[in-house]
Design brief:
20% strand, 3-stranded mixed sheet, 379 residues, D-Maltodextrin-Binding Protein, domain 2, alpha/beta, 3 domains, 434 Repressor (Amino-terminal Domain), globular
Amino acid sequence: MTEARRQSDDRLRLTRLARGLSQGDLARTAGVTRQAISGIESGRWSPSLDVALSLASALDSTVEELFGSAAESPPVRSRLAVLPDPPMSGDDGRLLLAEVAGDVVAFPLTGDHTMVPGFVPALAAGPVAVDPSNGGGPRPRGNRSRDIEVRRVAAPTPTLAVAGCDPALALLLGPLQRHEPAVNLAWWSSHNSSALELLEAGAVHAAALHRGIETRTRARPGIEIVGFASWREGLAIHPRHRGRVRDLADVVHHGLRIVNRPAGSEARRLLDSELSRLKLDADQVKGYATEASAHLLAASGIASGMVDAAVTCEPAALAYGLEFVAWQHELSELHIPRSLVGTVEVRALLDVLAGRELPAQLAALEGYDADPCGRILAA
């Protein structure tokens, strides 16, 4: 299947998968042919109003949710609680809204306010043992050497486990909690290689992987691949070096310090590729041996003045008002085992990907392209 498929067709497929239905099951329930379902999902046919109504009824959805376009929300008059720091670029910015004593108060999401600088609520507590022979990595299926007993500190709730380093994965929480039934989010921030290991070990429902946009998605047996977002990755630089540093060669020439990303990350691969192109050694780069575990942490380190540059994603750089030199246009995609499609957690994820809120959230985030969100990339 191609990446040029229409969003409405992919919403139909995602909604069908979320209900655990095959094309034949949906055809029988809706009173249409399986060929009609296939034609609509592949983008070859557009449904008539009668067929659209039948499909919506069979999927316990609406025609607008399956085939409609998003409606503009009316403007809300609000009071800006604090001035954004750093200042927001452009005319639009992302905000939190809360109604306080009858007033709608707005808080700008910039800098450290783009993430939650507090403790993540735990769902359980108990002994944590690391198997040294496994290097602390994911526990393979069937290996029970790291099984532990824990006690719950929160009521059991269906929880979607996702691994990946895309900072926008945190945006899944809101629509998942508003889903019926409500689903919690356990996002394990990890780079490409680690996320894929967790997926293959059966430790997560989905892995968010990102790749160069020019690299075609390869279908993987038993895996649905659904688009999440698109963004650019490259060199983020502290504004104090504006006009003085344009690329990695300038970073090395001026003896500036970077913070690196972990081995196995796409950012580390890009940095090593650029060093090879420039015929430079890693030991010529100050800070090469350091690691920031997440894109926003790398950007925060630059903004704080602790380091001068890092390879990170453009949305992280823009959130902190950093200079940015793009090296690669990337696609972030969710790899979901087909065996888990019928679970409550994955059904909720597919509904969210097929819905309106998540693309709107992504589109409001500077540096993100929401167009891939909910598109079937490979099946």
